[in-house]
Amino acid sequence: MGIYDGQVVVVAGGGAGIGAAAAELLASRGASVIVSDVVKGNAEQVSSAINGAGGKSVAREVNVADQQAVAEFLNSIAKEFGRLDAIVNSAGIVGPTNTPLEKITAADIEKVLSINLLGAIWLTQAALPIMKAAKYGRIVHVASIAGKEGNPGMTPYVLSKSAMIGFVKAVAKEVATEGITINAIAPAVIKTPMNASTSEETLKYMISRIPMGRLGEAEEVAEMISFAASSACSFTTGFCFDTSGGRATY
Ligand SMILES: NC(=O)c1ccc[n+]([C@@H]2O[C@H](COP(=O)([O-])OP(=O)(O)OC[C@H]3O[C@@H](n4cnc5c(N)ncnc54)[C@H](O)[C@@H]3O)[C@@H](O)[C@H]2O)c1
Fold it and tell me: Which one of 211, 217, 221, 235 has the fewest beta carbons within 10 angstroms of its own beta carbon?
């Protein structure tokens, strides 16, 4: 028996990295997982790997920055599967790194916010009516240590994640009596494709601040997501769980 038996879970940004690891872990614990991503082929690959391992999964192409597409997507899932127990939002981009504020453009800020922050808002907004009707729901947004501590040289990313953490605290309180919990996860630097384009200097800075002195693994973050998105996470909401190898002990 898995803790997710009978549950339907959407993993946005599930085509790679932390989202892919979470999709695989939750499926192995019994969830039917809808792997959604802006890169269709990646979502399909993760979904077939889950099905190949004996789990249940389908793939969908969804851009979380598109408010209408997100609403249509979640409504179609609730209709097709008859329920929507949890959403894990791991969709995100890093934007400029090692870039002083003077070189950051309005377009940089708009692009990062439209995916990292507005994506989280659109997913939550569309999920709430479905979850309120069911009097049950779990929403987990992957934020970042950058949003808690403010890594230098990557202002658009940092502000998207600190705003996401503030958003989670506020909206969690709005629905606290409705059987719905909404939490964030703040990983420090994790070994995923996202870091392929992060500058060497920024990576070194981030690892130097982790007491464990190493990168985290996507599977380690997935374990925390698995708890926060499960029915076991019943008296914790508006929280930002830490997966930072000891960097943030608060
Ligand atoms: N890797 C790290 O060091 C790290 C640390 C802290 C937080 N995070 C956060 O964790 C989350 C996952 O990161 P990751 O390292 O797995 O990155 P990743 O690049 O491996 O995966 C992110 C996924 O999101 C998808 N995506 C991007 N834009 C999208 C959009 N508009 N709509 C839908 N999907 C979209 C990508 O296609 C990709 O599959 C991100 O929100 C990231 O900010 C990562």
Answer: 235
> 68-123: per-residue pLDDT in tens?
999 999 999 999 999 999 999 999 999 998 999 999 999 999 999 999 999 999 99
Residue 53: Cβ-neighbour burial (10 angstroms; 0-12, 13-18, 19+): exposed
**CATH 3.40.50.720 is right for the domain spanning 8-242:** yes
- Choose one of 11, 87, 122, 192 to mutate for the ligand 1 pocket test, by most ligand atoms within 8 angstroms of C-beta: 192
* pLDDT tens track for 5-21: 999 999 999 999 999 99
Between the CA of 247 and the centroid of ligand 1 the distance, in Å, is: 21
Per the structure block, which two tokens stand in for 208? 């130097």
Q: Is 205 a catalytic residue?
A: no
CA–chain centroid gap for 186, Å, is 10
Contact 39 CB / ligand 1 (< 6 Å)? yes
pTM of the model: 0.98
